[in-house]
Write a structure and sequence with these properties.
By secondary structure, the protein is mainly alpha-helical. It has a domain of about 55 residues. The protein contains three helices and two strands; from the N terminus they run ββααα. The two termini are about 30 Å apart.
Length: about 100
């Protein structure tokens, strides 16, 4: 990984944390790209333990995102990117840049 720069999609293994250090300048930064499954699991644990309506809302929104992804043709990354920006942004309440 010494020569890598860009986006890295990996699991939450703690050994990767140093790779995402924002002060890494040579050859450049590595940006963590997390997955919805790991995010969803944390919300599910909270919802199951407490019945939190906020956690349930997050689970439902993530389910909507999964449904959006199923509409994209297999291996159509350009289509998925367009779908992601347009549909995900409305699902997430407009938190993404246009």
């Amino acid at each position: 990984m010494a020569g890598f720069t860009g986006f890295l999609h990996a699991d939450g293994y703690a050994g990767y944390e140093s790779l995402y250090n924002p002060t890494r300048t040579k050859p450049g930064p590595i940006v963590e790209v997390a997955c919805w499954a790991h995010c969803r699991r944390k919300f599910f644990d909270v919802w199951e333990a407490t019945g939190s309506p906020v956690a349930k809302e997050a689970i439902d929104r993530i389910a909507t995102l999964y449904a959006i992804e199923t509409k994209a043709p297999p291996n159509s990354y350009r289509f998925k990117a367009v779908v992601w920006v347009r549909s995900y942004n409305s699902t997430l309440g407009g938190i993404l840049p246009p």
